[in-house]
Structures are given as C-alpha cells and as structure tokens.
Amino acid sequence: MPSPSFDHDEVIARLGEVFRHYGYHGASLSRITQATGLGKGSLYNAFPGGKEDMANAVLGSIDDWFSNTVFSVLEQQGDPAAAFATMFEAVRHYFHSGQRICLMGAFAMDDSMIVFPNKSADISGVGAMPWRPALCAAG
C-alpha cells in the first residue's frame, strides 16, 4: 500500500514519462527515483513487483484514460461526427499535439512488449473495437 505522503497518480504519471523517454529497459531505478523523488523503499512498497509492477500501473492508467476519455465518448455520444471530433481532440491533447511519444511505441522499440504481451490490444481497444459502432453509424 502506497504511503499517504505522496500522490500515487502523480508518481504513475512521472513513471510514464520515464518509460516514454528511456523505454522499459532503459528506465533504471536511479532514473525512476530521480523522476519520482521517491527512494527505493517507497517505490518497492508502492510497487512490490518492481519495475514490471510500475510499468503495469502506468499501462493500466493509460488504459483507463482511453476507456474513460476516448472510447466512452464513442459509445455514448449520439452524433458520430461529434464523437470522433471529441475523441480526436482528446487524443491530440494527450499526445501534446505530437510532442509526446506513445508508450506502447516506446516499449515496442526496445522489445519490451515481450514482457507485456496482452497490453497493446487492451490499450488500443482492438479486442473490444469500441469505435466500430460509431464508424458504422457515421456511414
């Protein structure tokens, strides 16, 4: 259980940036402690499985963001064109207009997807294809 002295969501966001910048294998514990401001003990207390646990927390956070911010819009908004416009704006904002690398891409570039074989389909929504009904409705 994470210590109440730090914001778990903020730590996950900082971890995500370390993984984006250095990839999974390049994200050393020293880089992670520097970026989060936490010591090794605090990190392992919050993420008992170590770096893999940290990466899974980041990937889970991204999956939640896409589910709640992108896919739910496509499923709930009545006007498909407006839904896609909202989705594209959210994704543009998330990726800082192309200035932020996709974490799945960063992991794929350093061969980390071997560690997380099921995550790419989860995050991209390929399994559920949440955008398919909206595309069909748009014609």
UniProtKB/TrEMBL annotation:
It comes from the Bacteria. This is HTH tetR-type domain-containing protein. GO terms for molecular function: DNA binding. Gene3D superfamilies: Tetracycline Repressor, domain 2. Signal peptide: none annotated. Residues 17-58 form the HTH tetR-type domain. Keywords: DNA-binding, Transcription, Transcription regulation. Pfam families: TetR_N (PF00440). The keyword Cytoplasm does not apply. InterPro entries: Homeodomain-like_sf, HTH_TetR. The keyword Ubl conjugation does not apply.
